Structures are given as C-alpha cells and as structure tokens.
Amino acid sequence: MGGDRAVRDGRRKPGLNGRKLYIPQMSWGGAVAFAAAFRSIGIDSEVCPNSDERTLELGGRHTSGEECLPARVTLGNFLKIVEQPGFDPSRTAFFMPSADGPCRFGQYAPYIRKVLRDIGMDEVPVFSPSSRDGYEGIAEQKNELMRNALRGLVAADALRKMLHRTRPYEVNKGDADAVHAAGIRRVERVLEQQKMAADERRRQLVAALEIARDEFRKVPAKFTKRRPLIGV
User: Fold this and answer.
1) 220 C-beta neighbours (distance < 10 Å), count
2) Please, which residues have CB within 8 angstroms of residue 141's CB and are 6 or more apart in sequence?
3) pLDDT per residue rounded down to tens, the chain (232 residues)
4) DSSP string spanning the chain?
5) Fewest Cβ atoms closer than 10 Å to its Cβ: which of 3, 65, 89, 107?
6) Any idea which fold 20-133 has?
7) What ranges do the domains of the chain cover?
8) By CB neighbour count within 10 A (0-12 exposed, 13-18 middle, 19+ buried), where does 90 fall?
C-alpha cells in the first residue's frame, strides 16, 4: 500500500506512505467521499480547503488566463496548502486524476507537477493512478478503493440532488444545507471504515441515504410555487 515501485526509466516515484493526500473539491460532498475512500485503504487523506480570493491569486500567478477556470482554482488551492505554516513537502501529496480526449483536464496533473518544480516543490508528488502504470501506489487495493470511491460518489450525488430538490423551497434558510452536510458526514463515516465487507458497507450506505431522505422530508418547505429544477 503506497510503497515505492520502480518505473520504466529506472527511477522511483515517491510513495504515499507517511504522506497526507489532498483531494480537490470536484464538489464538496464528492471530495469528502473520495477522501474517505482513500482512508478506507489506509491512506491519510483530506479535502482541499474552500476556494477564496487567495486561491485565484495564487492560481493566477502560474496561469495565462486561457485555461478553464477549474484549472486555476485547483492549482490555487494546492498552492494554498503549500504556503500553510509548517507545510512539509515530504509528508504531502496531491491527488489529480487524468483523462484522454480533447478536454484540457488531462493536462491538469502534468501542469501542476511543472508548477511545483518551478517553485522548488518537486518533492511533492501529484498522484494520478492509472492502468498505464498498474495503479502504482495502490495496486494491491485498487479494486477496494475504486469500489468505495464509486459508491461514495453515487451517494454524494444522490444527497446533492436531495439538496437541490429541497433548498429552493425551504422556509428557514440553511435547514436543507444542514441536513445535506449531516448526510455527507454519515456517508463519510461508513466509507472510511477499514476492512469492512463490501456487502455490509453497501447496506450501511443505503441506510445512511434513507436517513438523509427522511430528514430532508422533515425540512419545513413550501412547494406551492414551482421553481427551476436544479441538479438534473
């Protein structure tokens, strides 16, 4: 788990042992679920901080403005972690998937690596597991990780749809957000458990979603006037 493995050119990539893996916020709930899935296989993982003006400032220093905004935001949030007091590059890693095709998303990880090299932080690995490298760093546990991550993302998406279905009609502002956050935390607690049987984890995830469903139904809301549906 997370150990160093030789790569084709004879060099070795830094493993994840002893490092905290930071997950970018694809969506808050999805990122929480993904971090929990990594913890389920023993990899310390945490969600990146929320985006703010500092995010855009740091990301803007290393982008031209022609990139899509998520590229600037993702890079900026990683750089915010780098500038935190007590930051230790030897105990940090950043998670950034990759993809083929025309979208620039496939260039995120290589570009983030370049920026880290440029600022003298090339010791920090950008973790992009892929079938091309045999899922280096998680090879022995890739099936469990992918299963837990997929179930977590599905659960997070379901909770977000419940949120978008309820929040426009809530009577008391913030009620739906509170129920949503509590639901995400229930899912997180199920996902992060180590050595849990797959069927038992699935059962507990379903139970967590059922609790959230019932809690959303209790949110005081007025559905008399229809509003645009969000999150389809």
Assistant:
1) 9
2) 1, 41, 42
3) 333 333 333 344 557 889 999 999 989 999 999 999 999 999 999 999 999 999 999 999 998 888 888 889 999 999 999 999 999 999 999 999 877 766 677 788 889 999 999 999 999 999 987 656 656 667 578 889 989 999 999 999 999 999 999 999 999 999 999 999 999 999 999 999 999 999 999 999 999 999 999 999 999 999 888 887 665 5
4) -----B-TTS-B---STT-EEEE--SSHHHHHHHHHHHHTTT--EEEPPPP-HHHHHHHHTT--S-S-HHHHHHHHHHHHHHTSTT--GGGEEEE-----SSSGGGGHHHHHHHHHHHTT-TTS-EE---GGGTSTTSGGGHHHHHHHHHHHHHHHHHHHHHHHHHGGGBSSTTHHHHHHHHHHHHHHHHHT-TT--HHHHHHHHHHHHHHHHHHHHHS-B--SS-------
5) 65
6) Rossmann fold (3.40.50)
7) 20-133, 140-218
8) exposed
Side chain identity, residue 34: F
